[in-house]
Amino acid sequence: MIDALDMAGSMLLETLHASQLNYVYQNKVVLHQLNFQLKRGQVLLVKGANGSGKSTLLKLLAGLIPIQTGDIRFNNLNYTAYYSKFKAQLGYSGIPYPIVSQIKTLEYLDYISKLRNGVPFKSLDWGKLLVKQLNLSSILDQAVNKLSTGAIQQLSTAQALIHQPSLVILDEPNANLDQTQTNKLVELCQILKPKMALIICSHQTMAWETIVDQELTL
């Protein structure tokens, strides 16, 4: 199999396959014999009650916690063994949103963009779409530590998407958004969908019905 490469040489996602995933935390079975497969251009919606293992699954897929038993494969390659090649193609926004800073929002986005793209955020045509769809224009000059919870959430989504990864994982991305903001977020994900595989965890499942290809209930 020939793996697609982006311009920086990192490996683009074609397929993500999880098989027989198990995870135990403090003697509690959080995930049991979990299986799914996702392709680029598809959206997977992860559902379940609080404590059902949704965030644990997303952290496993993001490489933030180690796999206990089971297997995750990225383009049919072992996820753990090849993680260094995959991580540049990963965008993750999780709870709590780890953004606490006195710098302004635009300065933060510039920092992340330089880190991941090599250029300032304001140089990206791609950035204009994020600003529009995530309602960032009114907060660009505000200090990050003064933002509302919803604005921090939108900013976290922006940093996950800023480098146009081919695998995007969003944990409750619309939990603190109003209906208009949610609609624009879903619209953004619809625009992104052909180039990415998206895994979205949300209690507000109806908001995502128009773009979801698969559902996984834990």
Strand order of the largest sheet: 6-7-8-3-9
Q: What number is the mean pLDDT? A: 89
Shape: globular
CATH classification, class level: Alpha Beta
Structural class: alpha/beta
Radius of gyration from CA coordinates: 17 Å
What is the ordering of alpha helices and beta strands? EEEHEEHEHHHEHEE
Low-confidence stretches: 1-9
The fraction of residues in strands falls at 15-25%
CATH architecture: 3-Layer(aba) Sandwich
Specify the CATH homologous superfamily: P-loop containing nucleotide triphosphate hydrolases
Q: Give the termini separation.
A: 32 Å
What is the CATH topology assignment? Answer: Rossmann fold
List keywords for this structure.
single chain; 218 residues; alpha/beta; Rossmann fold; 5-stranded parallel β-sheet
Tell me what the structure shows.
The chain has helices at 54-62, 83-86, 105-117, 125-133, 149-161, 179-192, and strands at 15-25, 28-39, 43-47, 69-74, 77-78, 90-93, 167-171, 197-201, 214-217. The protein is an alpha/beta fold and 218 residues long. The protein has one domain (15-217): Rossmann fold. The radius of gyration is 17 Å and the shape is globular.
